[in-house]
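Entry for the shared binder. Reason: the reviewer on the internal report wants the predicted structure included alongside the sequence.
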Amino acid sequence: MKSIKKLILYIRRHLDFLVLDMVTFALAYMLAVQVRRALKFKITHEDLFVKFGIAALVIYLVVVLVSYNLNGILARSFPREIRAVSLQMISTWSIYTIVLFLLREAHDFSRIIYVLGFCTCSTCLVVVRTIWKGVVKHTGMSKRFSPMVLIVVDRSRAQRVLQGLLSGSYENTYKIVGVVTNESGEDNYNDWYPYYEGFQNISEILLNRHVQDAFVALDDAEEEATVFKMLLDAGVTIHRSLGDSVFGYASEHIDIFGGKAVITIDDTQPSLVSRADRIWREYISKRAKKKGRNQQDS
């Protein structure tokens, strides 16, 4: 259930790049076929071009979904994008090779198309992804459709943490719904983002806003553990600064967040009790809002 939810969230976040990748891959494969024809080699079994082209497209789609290759795509530089696409295509073509080997009619398939397809698809994917990233970043589209993120940070360094995040590509890929700080420490926070003092506000924020990610920067290990549990039980993906991790979650890995290297944790194993409690609180909250609107209308 958790993996399905994660996959659906991944598709929703990157639907534009996912569709663009599929269209680009199909057109690039057709380009390889046209180049093959332009070389004036003898063409036989043209039906295999379409059949195996569809097979390659399906394999590519599966690899993109399974590998989560599109995560952090807006923060990638051009060299890193080349590397990401190369790994994606090598994985796709490796599986594609196995499929061709297992099919009896594959011996009639064009080897030139096999090689050209890899080259044209790889090149076109890098070019189109780079162009679309430029369009998204410079037209403000990423801000409009960006996922909601909550900042949980020590009050004494809230301003410094925010400035560090916003100096990267953070503002182009996420929308900050609020900043939550602990109750102790020097208050040097001064910004226009919604501000909440005390971790008890996190539950209410998660109920009322569709928070998908959180950036946590807390020095106290007990406070961090408490916040982590609240966020993970709600299915929120957590990002924290690089450092020694004492939690040891199964899906803990180094990622790019706001243009910076972070540790990302999305290993959530909420109990049935916590799930039921959250569902019940959501139901009560929605009923209260609906009742309030009805009273206003009357």
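Summary line for the report: Residues 168-172, 268-275 have pLDDT under 50 and may be disordered.
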